[in-house]
Amino acid sequence: MFITNKIQPLNQRPRGEIALKFALLDEAMLAAVTLLATWVMSKIERRGRAYGYGGPNGLKLFLSGLAWGVVLISLLVFTLWKAGFLVFERRLIFGGDVLRYGFLWLIAFCLVGVFEESLTRGFILYTLTRGLAAFYQRAFRARQSAALGFWTASVILSVIFFLGHTNNPGESPVGLLSVFLAGMFFCLSVWRTGSLWWAIGMHATWDWGQSFLFGVADSGLMAQHHLLATHPQGRALLSGGTTGPEGSILIVGVLAVGSLVVLFTLPRGRYYEAPPVPVQAAPQPAIAAV
Question: What domain range includes position 261?
Fold first, then answer.
């Protein structure tokens, strides 16, 4: 963030509309710095490809996440449209521009997924899980200390994820609630699979579907060169208003559907296992003196 602030200070950045070149540059730098920090910590701690980047199914999970991201955002947008809370106006770009801008925005949002998932559900989540699991184990001798540590860390980092979106223009209370719930949803996928890759893919195409494909606001921000022109209609609580579909209370149902997808379609992986609880030896009976 320090580097990007020097290149383009906050007061000079586009407010409410994101330029493609800026998005690519900004997110590429943020993703690179985050990945570099993750790699350095993996070397210091001698963990190899840990913190959610290990495992044999990374590509398969990433592609699955890409597909489900499109499906789930389409489900939300379709519901808003059929209920009369979203109006499609017209198409804005044609021909080769559709493929060109669609591909470039997909790259940009893949970088967003890598940055945000690595930052909030990568090294920090793993380290907090390990520390909290050790605390629960020592303080309460909890057999489920790994799960308790993980979900406590998930709540903490989802709150931080929520706070990171509070400065977005056009945000709303429901939109911020959905950010927190989305953070917990992505944590669920990490706990289920032991990997960040599904969350990265899903995060990327969820944002891509909003910003490029359907041309709706994403946390109050619009992307340049999007395919369709739309506008919300009706009460902001249901339509999302200036926040976009993420500001609609209907997103809770879509995230619930997504959680079922995670639990019933994704392979079970191993994220973190706490060391076994030490068993105290039974005291030996005293030998009576003769």
Answer: 62-265
Percent of the chain with pLDDT over 90: 73
Cα separation, 53 vs 136, in Å, equals 26
The total number of structural domains that make up the chain: 1
Specify if 50 maps to a domain.
no
Question: 246 in a domain, yes or no?
Answer: yes
- Whole-number average pLDDT of the chain: 88
Q: Is residue 271 part of a domain?
A: no
* 52-81: pLDDT as tens digits: 887 788 999 999 999 999 999 999 999 999
Structural domain contains residue 52: no
Report pLDDT for 4. Answer: 40
Helix (H) or strand (E) holding 34: helix 20-44
